[in-house]
Amino acid sequence: MPTDPWTPIETHALQSLEQLFAAGPDRLATLSREVAGIYFDWSKTHLDDGLVSAFADLAQARGFAAARDALFAGDIVNVTERRAAEHVAERGSGNPEAVQAAAARRARMRGLVDAVEAGAFGEIDAVLHIGIGGSVLGPEVVVDSLGRDGARMDIRFLSNIDPQAFEDSVDGLDPVSTLVVAASKTFTTAETMANLESALAWLREGGVDDAYGRVVAVTASPDAALAAGVDESRILTFSEGVGGRYSLWSAVSVSAALALGWDRFEELLEGAAEMDRHFRYADGRENVVLTAAFADLLYTQKLGSQTRAVFPYDERLRLLVPFLQQLEMESNGKSVTAEGQPLGRPSGPVVWGGTGTDAQHAVFQLLHQGTALIPVEFVAVAESDGAVPDQHRQLLLNAFAQGAALMRGKASDDPHRSYAGNRPSATILLDRLDARTLGALLAFYEHRTFTNAVLLGINPFDQFGVELGKQIAGQLASGADEDSFDPSTLALIEKAGL
Ligand SMILES: O=P(O)(O)OC[C@H]1O[C@](O)(CO)[C@@H](O)[C@@H]1O
Q1: In sequence order, which ranges of 352-408 are alpha helices (DSSP H)?
Q2: With contact defined as beta carbons under 8 Å apart, do 258 and 239 qualify?
Q3: Active site located where (predicted)?
Q4: One of 140, 330, 377, 446 is an active-site residue; which one?
């Protein structure tokens, strides 16, 4: 056996998708699975038996099973920050102590949701959720996906420091009946603090005398929230071990719980826990997370794909792509291993995408005939939301047609009208879109990100790469060391009149 577990993968001769289907009548059965109300089909990728075995050997060589055990045991897996990664405990999986602590925090969260519903803050009909990155993208995708039917409140999300974003977010809201949720793991993030100040001013101008009394803080740094003026009784906490982009299972989703009701929030957690059990216990070939990660690495590592495109064919899932962008790119966009050695191979890909069918009329030309090999992922929901069933049927058929067209291609004497085909795609089909299936779907993506990281040797739980830009913004704002900046940056500051 070669000493480098990548060698068998790199030297493996690939067959075309057409050949793979022709040669393996059980291909669909081996590369598709139903888990937690979601059908995963990876058969239109170039994975074959030999590759799956080679990737399984790589997983063994990289200590994947032990790494997965360590994640669920609450061991230190975020080695650079010397922390566990406790997001699975938020949905009741893994380390009993962490699960218990998360349950106690969740009980406080529920108390607050009940208090709001019981009128402890007056007549509240709207929530302004302030946060950025992981402190907003999770609850936002949940509310946008599930909140169309019977949302109990008008939930607005505000992240950007652009004052226009603030104006837009409060447009039409009455300060007197609005609750402000300020979510920030650190409670120091510049955008969130600035927007909180604007929200406080807006509340006061709108006749709310005790503006702070309307603010709920969600944070892993309660002292910082206290120092910012929020009363302890309205501070909900989550553990330092829950990374921002993995935090939607915690009190960060208090706005989602207010919008959807407590039961649906619990169902979201249960769906995620079901995916946790699958990821943790399903055998190698049965494990949809491993299959997905193997295909990811096939394209990024062996075939040089620098991007992966994700297309939800469902308007309700339109915010899935930005959520995945943070989850995957902040986790696996690294050039060094967890031990600080050069990675020596491509890291996680750029994740991009859009909503089908819109995207078909905008970016699919490149997917069908461009020169880059881009694995495509379709995410769709079988059950129609009921409105116009025939349009829903057409929506799904379009998604499936795109996968077939990418794979099949079409020969033509006219090169402009010729499609090479043999282009990979994966399809994720939810039985229906509800809190359970959404929880399972998002947990699937978390575990897939983790699995990619383990197989590459990356620590997916830190994000030092975002710090430098913040520091420089601070330096520019204070005018410190201005002379040390390059002429381009200085000219831009002058041009903008700053
Ligand atoms: O929750 P916080 O501390 O406000 O951070 C918000 C986001 O900013 C980041 O730290 C990146 O700058 C993300 O990792 C995080 O989700």
Answers
A1: 364-369, 389-408
A2: no
A3: 330 (proton donor), 361, 470
A4: 330
User: Average of pLDDT values for 299-315?
Assistant: 98
Burial of 161 (0-12, 13-18, 19+ CB in 10 A): middle
Out of 157, 223, 463, give the residue to mutate to test ligand 1, the one with the largest number of ligand atoms within 8 Å of its CB: 463
**Closest ligand 1 atom to the C-alpha of 132?**
6
Q: How far is the CA of 466 from the centre of ligand 1 (A)?
A: 9
| Predicted pLDDT at 386 | 72
Alpha helices in 215-316 (DSSP H): 222-227, 254-260, 262-281, 288-297
How many Å apart are CA 69 and CA 15, to the nearest integer?
Answer: 35
ipTM over 0.85: yes
**Ligand 1 site residues, Cβ closer than 6 angstroms:** 132-135, 184-186, 189, 192, 244-245, 330, 463, 466
* pLDDT bucket at 1, cuts 50 / 70 / 90: low
What is the homologous superfamily of the domain 7-82+268-462 according to CATH? Answer: Glucose-6-phosphate isomerase like protein; domain 1 (3.40.50.10490)
Closest Cα to atom 11, ligand 1: which residue? 466
pTM of the full predicted structure? 0.97
CATH class of 95-260: alpha beta
End-to-end CA distance of the chain: 62
Domain ranges for the chain, please list them: 7-82+268-462, 95-260, 466-495
What are 416-455's pLDDT values in tens digits? 999 999 999 999 999 999 999 999 999 999 999 999 999 9
Report residue 38's pLDDT band, with 50, 70 and 90 as the boundaries: very high
364-393 burial: b if 16+ Cβ within 10 Å, else e: beebbeeeebbbbbbbbbeeeeeeeeeebe
- Write out pLDDT tens, residues 288-302: 999 999 999 999 999
CA-to-CA distance for 357 and 355, rounded, in angstroms? 6
Q: Catalytic residue at 410? A: no
pLDDT score at 290 = 98
Q: Fold match between 7-82+268-462 and 95-260? A: yes
Q: Which of 123, 339, 361, 467 is catalytic?
A: 361
Which two three-digit tokens encode residue 401? Answer: 């047609």
**pLDDT, tens only, 163-212:** 999 999 999 999 999 999 999 999 999 999 999 999 999 999 999 999 99
Active site residue 361: yes
> How far apart, in whole angstroms, are the C-alpha atoms of residue 198 and residue 203?
9
Is residue 319 within 8 Å of 145, Cβ to Cβ? yes
Identify the active-site residue in 97, 286, 470, 482: 470
